[in-house]
Amino acid sequence: MKAALFATTGVLLDRHGSVDEHGPYRRGRDLPFAGALFAVGGLGLAGLPPFGTALGKAVAEHAGEAEFPWLPAVFVLVSALTSGAVLRAAARIFAGAGPRPRERYTGPETTGGGEEPEIRDPQRRIPVPMLAVPTVLLAAALAVGLLPGLGVALAHAARQFTDRTTDTAAALHGHAVAPSAPVPDVGWSAEGVLLALASTALAVLLAMTAVWGPTLRSPALGRAAAVCEGVGRRVIVPLRRLHSGHLGDYVAWLAVGMAVLLVVITV
């Protein structure tokens, strides 16, 4: 799913020379098909059934909720926040929705502006492969969720890959043996579908609030906006100072995250 989004972003870069949400505001309206692909990718990132991302999310939630009952809530929240940002960008860039966004953060960070396109000819047609690649990737993600045999085959391969007995038999003796542990169930469940729909609905709600919230006049919305503004100043801005988007920050926080995860699992 992320690969499809990256490929679609390449279309925007090829045409407008920027992948920043603020720079190409409304400029992607001449790319309706790319905009549709980007929006579908954002919904799939949230876990919209029947995409394979929703199935994988449901399987992971089911596998971890026995020991970590709070894990499904984390999956829903993180999926909604990530997808909401993608849908917000899609609405602003490809549909011109909402007022022009204002950048309130002035600290050091990486941006998508000022990128150099490979070919400087905005009048030419978008090459077919640039649109075909994300289309095929989205179709593949859809196939993983729709074809039951594919999910079972992937689960069987994953079980063999993580089973020491089967690895030893294949590597040393040249023959396959049945995994010592049963293959987990990777089918759809009512709980998984409901959680996937919840994360998708929350992502759409967050995107709509971010895009159209500033244009609405309501005391309740005003108070909510003030609360969000306060949270942004006290929480989001310090986090952005800690992670500017530079490569070194990615490496450092990856190490921190792995260390915290190991502590949580072992304690």
Description:
Keywords: Cell membrane, Membrane, Transmembrane, Transmembrane helix. It is a multi-pass membrane protein. Residues 98-122 are annotated as: Disordered. The protein has 267 residues and is mostly helical. It is 67% helix and 0% strand. It has two domains: 2-101 and 118-215, no CATH class; 219-267. The two termini are 33 Å apart.
What is the total tally of β strands? 0
Instruction: Report the C-alpha radius of gyration, rounded.
Output: 22 Å
Q: What would the average pLDDT be, to the nearest integer? A: 82
**String of helices and strands:** HHHHHHHHHH
Fold topology:
Layout: H1 2-16, H2 32-46, H3 52-64, H4 71-94, H5 128-146, H6 148-162, H7 164-173, H8 190-212, H9 219-242, H10 247-266
Describe what is shown at a glance.
This protein has 267 residues and is mostly helical. It has helices at 2-16, 32-46, 52-64, 71-94, 128-146, 148-162, 164-173, 190-212, 219-242, 247-266. Helices cover 67% and strands 0% of the residues.
